[in-house]
Structures are given as structure tokens and as C-alpha cells.
Amino acid sequence: MNGKYILDEEGNPVLILDILQWARWFETAERHVADTRLDNVRISTVFLGLDHSWGQGPPLLWETMIFGGIHDGYQARYSTKAEAEVSHARAVSIAKGKGINVKGE
Fold it and tell me: Do 55 and 103 touch, CB atoms closer than 8 A?
């Protein structure tokens, strides 16, 4: 079962069992960690609100994606906001052509 999470006032994930409580929070929450645009490329890192680990390790609650350019479709998920912030910067570097080619990872 994939859990539903919200962020508390300090930005820490909290497991929520009440789907209506989760939905009300999710509807208005600012979930973007970072959003960078480079010409026709967008790099977005967000809090997902859902655990994407599918029971395989710690909850994966943050995601970075690249939209556009040669790395379109790049995606990585993280367990902590700190990991997501570091990886957003890495994805920006990749999109600028300063990182490795990760298409298909």
C-alpha cells in the first residue's frame, strides 16, 4: 500500500490515514521545491504526497523531472527534501549539458 503524506509546518512529511484530510491539504499546498526553466527546458522538483516506493525501502516522496530537451523524461525520486534539493541542482546541470547523459536510466 502506498501511503499518503502531507508536510507539517516545518516541511516534514507526515503519514495521513484520512484521505479527505490528505485531499484538502493537497488541493492547496505549495509542493514545489524548485522549478527552473532553461529556454525550452523545465526542471521541476515537487513533493508528491504519495509514497512511490511501493513498499521497497523508505518512502519516496519527492520527485525531479526534466521536461523538454534531450533529457526529456528524466525522472528521479527521493526520500528526503534535502536529497531532492541536491538532485534538482544535478538535474539542472544535466539539462545544461554539464552532466552525464541519463536518458533511459
Answer: no
